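Would you mind writing out a protein's amino acid sequence and the numbers that encode its backbone to help me picture the idea?
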Amino acid sequence: MRQRSMGTIRLAVGPSGEGGPTRLRDLAESGPSRLRFPRVGDVPEAVLVNTAGGIACGDVFHVDLDLAGGSDLVFTTTAAEKIYRSDGPESVIENRVRIGEGARLAWLPQETILFDHARLRRRFEVDLAADAGLLAVEIVAFGRAARRERIGQGLFVDAWRVRRGGRLAYADTALLEGPVTDLLARPAIGGGAGAAATLLDASPGAEPRLEEARAILAGLERPEEGIEAAASAWNGHLVLRMLGPIVGPLRERMARFTAAYRGLPMPRVWQT
């Protein structure tokens, strides 16, 4: 019988006293999933480590975050997450987040790399209090660029659901199944992209920042990289999407945009 990895993280944080700095309240780890908390400044960083070195067919990983009112947290990963080839079973990543009144989360994992024949279902569920803030970034590489890898067959399902005050505020699902590289070559899907990125700002005051976001994008433009990017805003939130031929320049541009938009540097692990 093939051995499967099942990794689980449950993290609860909250302020230390009224208006105090965010502190760890509870942490549970199982399987190959571990969290590390480097000392980086006033806002704590939670760095997810997958000691298995990647995700194989049939593996299941869960992350459950609970930010009490007034908390401030950055969540990231120690490296890119690799989704290996599958001979049939699907891998599952389920991320569930609750953000209390006045709390803020910057969800900034490093990129996910899909190998040829990878099969992944990923879900990102967020429950926001009325004045809570979320900034989330996800980057996906379709194949290993250094090997010029094509995804001849595969599955990628990425579902985002964000609720504010119990009501659905943002829903987005990407579904690619079959010859993923060929599907992405279609103009209406990816226009030949080999990597994609999404940034969602679901924080109070996000929608009026649209022109600011577009100005930052314009300042980062490098036509020779072949990256296409656009921002839009509605229903109180702002969304930025990028498509590029390979993940390296796209990752760099998204990191530069995010740092400028937040007014803060990216997590230190992004620089190693």
